[in-house]
Each structure stands twice: as C-alpha cells, then as structure tokens.
Specification:
about 240 residues; 2 domains; about 60% helix
C-alpha cells in the first residue's frame, strides 16, 4: 500500500493525538466531530477514534508527562539538608534556578536528575569543596563528573550571582497564594513542582526577576521616550 493509500491512517493518528492532548489540557473535552474541522477528507466515528487513542497510549506505555528537574527537588534537597525537609526559601530558589536553565542551550545535554542535583548544590552555595564532593557521592543514579560540570554552568547564570535573594523573597511573600490548576495536565505539573508550590507562583516570580533587569528597564525607557516624541508630532507608536 502506498503513502497515498494510507492517508486515512495518518489523519486518524493526527486526530487521535489531538484528542489526547485536549483531554490532558481541557476540563471540557470537545466532541470528536469538533476535532475534525476544515473539510477533512475522512470523518471518523468516536469509537474508531477511541481505539486509535488507546493504541497511541499503549505505544507510549501511558507515559504522558515528561520528567523534569522539578520531580527530583525533594530528593536532592533533602540530601543536601541531611535528610531534613528543605525550607521554603530553598525551594523558591531551586524553582527559579531550574527555570533559569532554559536560557542556556548547554543544559540540554544533561538529564533532569543531573540538573536537579546540580541545582541542589548551587542553592547551597556556601558549601566547601569537601562538602560538595560528599554531597555528590551521596546522590544515587547520577554521575559525579556530569553533575559538577552542570554546577559550573549554573555559576554563570545571573540568578546565582545577582537576583537570587530578590526573587526568592518575592516567591516567599506570595507562597500563601494557591492557584487551582485549570486542567488535568495542570494538576500533574503542579504535583511535579511540589504539592505546596504552584507553577503560577514560580513563573510569576521568574517574570518579576526578569522584569527588573537593566536591559528591560532601558528598553522600556526608550519606548516611553519614543511615545512622547510621537505624541508631540501627533502620531501614535
């Protein structure tokens, strides 16, 4: 059978994947017919779509959530803190640091567990070399060399050198605010970043930190100056 003869299977797969995504993201899942818009060549019944969904999920072994460094915060932070529960300040700094790694492409070579281990060491920045070696040795399932390499990369992040305390204080002040996840995947994401820490708080804190940077302030000032000049000449930007 040629590719053209398999067009309907490709379309069925696409619609099934869209349906699965909708069930993960939406609280009110659209009907199967509503997912097949734009004058499709084939229109599939709900039961046919359901069978393809099961096939896709079985192929993926029902692993619908990507593992992130947030999944390992509790483990590595407790190791650093001598098996004690980490403080809210440490958790806030950890989440901010994990989000900061998105800025560096070099972090793509590391596993989520390795990033989380390096994060735990970076947050405990006052540790001596001997203590760091001891901490890394206590971490199971991660390579010491790769973790230390990741630590060195994290030292270059502005979060460690500048805005760590500021962003952590903002996150702590808002730690009592809890946002109810609006979708099933939102519940999973919130659980991944610890049950007592909502994703909205973490992202909001990161946004506050980034907005305080000199470059953004300078761009905002330039934008305001341009607006003022345009207004004087009767134009709007």
């Amino acid at each position: 059978m040629t590719y053209l003869g398999k067009t309907w299977t490709v379309q069925l797969l696409a619609v099934a994947c869209l349906s699965i995504a909708a069930k993960m993201e939406e609280t009110k899942v659209p009907l199967s017919v509503d997912l097949q818009v734009g004058e499709p060549k084939f229109v599939f019944e709900a039961k046919t779509l359901y069978r393809m969904e099961v096939l896709v999920l079985s192929t993926l072994k029902w692993k619908m959530q990507v593992i992130t460094p947030c999944s390992f915060i509790d483990y590595f932070m407790s190791k650093i803190c001598n098996d004690q529960y980490p403080s809210s300040m440490s958790i806030s700094r950890s989440l901010q640091l994990i989000l900061s790694t998105i800025k560096g492409i070099d972090f793509l070579e590391f596993r989520p567990s390795e990033i989380a281990a390096a994060m735990a060491i970076s947050v405990s920045g006052d540790m001596q070399t001997l203590s760091i070696d001891k901490a890394v040795s206590s971490f199971a399932f991660v390579g010491k060399g790769r973790v230390l390499k990741c630590v060195e990369l994290m030292k270059d992040l502005t979060f460690i050198n500048g805005d760590a305390a500021k962003t952590a204080n903002v996150a702590t002040q808002h730690s009592s605010v809890f946002t109810v996840p609006q979708s099933p995947i939102g519940v999973l994401d919130a659980a991944a970043c610890l049950s007592y820490k909502s994703d909205e708080i973490a992202v909001g804190s990161c946004a506050n930190s980034s907005h305080s940077s000199p470059d953004i302030k300078r761009r905002k000032q330039d934008y305001d100056d341009n607006n003022n000049k345009a207004s004087e000449h009767g134009f709007k930007s």
